[in-house]
TrEMBL record:
It comes from the Bacteria. GO terms for biological process: methylation. It comes from Pseudomonas fungipugnans. It catalyses: malonyl-[ACP] + S-adenosyl-L-methionine = malonyl-[ACP] methyl ester + S-adenosyl-L-homocysteine. NCBIfam families: BioC. GO terms for molecular function: malonyl-CoA methyltransferase activity. This is Malonyl-[acyl-carrier protein] O-methyltransferase. Pathway: Cofactor biosynthesis; biotin biosynthesis. The keyword Electron transport does not apply. CDD domains: AdoMet_MTases (cd02440). Keywords: Biotin biosynthesis, Methyltransferase, S-adenosyl-L-methionine, Transferase.
């Protein structure tokens, strides 16, 4: 159950329909447990070029629209677009406003004309895209010359404590797998976009117990969606084995859960 390093390996990421359905179901509970998502998106906003003032922005993978609203406040004169693959998220976000237009769509095939955006902002969404080359190609196509693609994603090493604890129990795929940071670096360099910044930052959250972590992942819609995941209910003996294995990671603050976050700011050449 190792992390897969190849960027576009078939079967290594979940089917998009499952992703959309899972996040649609989580729309109502998402914001109540999304502290990491808010922290990461705020960090990404702070990494935009200084004095940057887009005429049109796209919140790619907008979810509940939290950062659509933040972008609307930061760039009040701009035309805002919010896009997500999960209809349930869009239904939740639309009444809250922030963007002029909310639309269903896929990051690998944007429903936009060429050179229509000055900023594409995407926080913790593109890790679910199996073909990241297409994501970059579509961003390049949809951006105006001089436009910015700013994204935050997850890479290999995310939730390694949970993954390693499950490995001791049964060796099955229980934790979502993400591409290596080196793959992001390679694909961004080959995209035709100029790499303004690209960093891997670890965010560590702490929980009182394993159940608190797994319940949060389910409320976010980010529980195990990988091909090869076990079907049916998890037996009591395996849950007890997981709890025992995870306790070995316990720190003074609680049980750690590490998220390896990729922060990237890319610019389309003039």
């Amino acid at each position: 159950m190792t992390d897969l390093s190849l960027p576009n390996l078939p079967g290594s990421l979940p089917d998009k329909r499952q992703v959309a359905a899972s996040f649609s179901r989580a729309a109502a509970s998402y914001d109540s447990v999304a502290q990491l998502q808010r922290d990461v998106g705020s960090q990404l906003l702070s990494r935009l070029p200084p004095a940057f003032s887009p005429e049109r922005w796209l919140d790619l993978g907008c979810g509940t629209g939290y950062f659509s609203r933040a972008l609307g406040e930061q760039f009040p004169a701009a035309d805002g677009l919010a896009l997500d693959i999960a209809e349930g998220m869009l239904n939740h976000a639309r009444p809250l406003g922030g963007a002029a237009h909310f639309m269903a769509g896929d990051a690998e095939r944007l429903p936009l004309r060429d050179a229509t955006c000055d900023l594409i902002f995407s926080s913790l969404a593109v890790q679910w895209c199996a073909d990241f080359t297409s994501v970059l190609s579509e961003a390049f196509r949809a951006l105006k010359p001089g436009g910015v693609f700013a994204f935050a994603s997850l890479c290999a090493g995310t939730l390694y404590e949970l993954r390693d604890s499950w490995r001791e129990v049964d060796g099955l795929v229980h934790v979502n797998r993400f591409r290596e940071f080196a793959a992001y670096r390679q694909l961004c360099a080959a995209s035709g976009l100029n790499v303004v910044s690209l960093h891997n930052v670890a965010h560590v959250l702490h929980y009182p117990d394993v159940r608190s972590l797994t319940h949060e992942l389910k409320a976010l819609g980010a529980h195990n969606l990988n091909p090869g995941r076990p079907g049916g209910l998890t037996g009591r003996a395996r849950i007890l084995g997981l709890i025992e294995a995870y306790e070995r990671f316990r720190q003074a603050q609680g049980l750690p859960a590490t998220y390896q976050v990729v922060y990237a700011v890319l610019e389309k050449p003039l």
